[in-house]
Amino acid sequence: MKNKTIMAVPVTCFWSVILVCVLGIIIGSFCDYNINVLLANKTDIGSFFATYGSYFSYALYPAAGSCLYVGFKKKGSKLSMLAWTLLILGCFMAVYYSNSYNGKAVRALLGYTAGESSPLLCILSWLFWVVLYSWIPFVMIKVLDDTNPDKLIAVGAAILVAGIAADNVNLWLKQVASRPRYKYLITLDNPVSEFRNWWQMRPNFAGSDDNFKSWPSGNMTIASMMFSLPMLADVTKKRSGARNLRCFIVACIFVIIYGYNRIHMTNHFLSDVCFGTLITYLIYSCVSSAFLKASE
Questions:
Q1: What is the extent of the structural domain holding 123?
Q2: I need a labelling partner for 130 at 20 to 30 A (CA). Which of 90, 92, 194, 257 fits?
Q3: Averaged over 230-247, what is the pLDDT?
Q4: Virtual torsion, Cα 28, 32, 36, 38, nearest 10 deg
């Protein structure tokens, strides 16, 4: 009997992530503020990782587009246009999200000043991300195994759909909670008096004010995309369960470092980080399981 897997790794891996997230939420519910007092301290290397660390997660979008491209191309020449469209869409999503969330840092490096500098610098900032992601489809198309196009399509579609769903669920929950960020609290005369636990929600209080969008962590939504890495490894040539497990371990290490960075850089509390990871992981698990089951 075939061993059951979730996102191409054993079920025990799935439950270990759930357990760690729930444990973090419980600890954070009692110690959020004190943990930030202990760990929060902005540094240059922390800022660099906060800006460019998401590259590895967003690289999964063009990788997913490549899966869809190879899968639909294998289905027949009549689907060629659809294959190209989905490949371009995957690449566009990576560039769009990177430029939206981190483009400010790149434009600053280029010396761009809104309203004063040439619009060409904005175009250059887009091209910066285009170059960073352009190599991925070429590599992925070579390493993907096209013997099971349905599985390729399922994996690619799951990553794209779950990524978009998780991002929008996160944005909605930020408005539901409207929780103050730690970096905002420490600018006040009495930070503790304005601190609120994650369950003390004030729906729609945040509006467009980013200072009140601490829970759940949006960046952990991005980081947790890495848990789909084993699924990608599972549709490549010379795939193996051991390789999938190694990819899972890499994803875990990346998510832990990213979570620490969010606290360290005064952006989030422990419960924000764990909720962001848990919500995204559950969405990816459900969507990928449904898509892969349909492909069979």
A1: 5-295
A2: 257
A3: 95
A4: -80
Query: Residue 10, SS3?
Result: strand
pLDDT, one tens digit per residue, over 157-212 is 999 999 999 999 999 999 999 999 999 999 999 999 999 999 999 999 999 999 99
Q: What is the mean pLDDT of the chain?
A: 94
pLDDT of 1: 39
Q: Specify whether the CB–CB gap between 47 and 138 falls below 8 A.
A: no
291 alpha carbon, distance to own chain's centre: 19
Query: Structure tokens of 20?
Result: 């760690």
Contacts of residue 202, defined as CB under 8 A and 6 or more positions apart, other chains included, come to 177, 178, 196
165 CB-near residues (< 8 Å, 6+ apart): 283, 287
Angle between helix 44-52 and helix 241-264 axes, rounded to 10 deg: 130
Give the whole-angstrom CA distance, residue 222 versus residue 220: 5
Side-chain half-sphere CA neighbours of 278 within 13 A:
19
Query: CA 49 → CA 25, 52, 68, 165, 198, distances in Å?
Result: 24, 5, 30, 25, 26
Cβ proximity of 271 and 215 under 8 Å: yes
Residue 77 has a pLDDT of 80
Q: Quote the CA–CA distance of 199 and 215 in Å, as a whole number.
A: 10
User: Which stretches does DSSP call E strand in the chain?
Assistant: 5-6, 9-10
In angstroms, how far is CA 46 from the centroid of its own chain?
Answer: 18
User: Positive or negative, the Cα torsion across 269, 272, 273, 275?
Assistant: positive
Residue 64 tokens read as 């997913």
pTM, whole model, 2 decimals?
Answer: 0.94
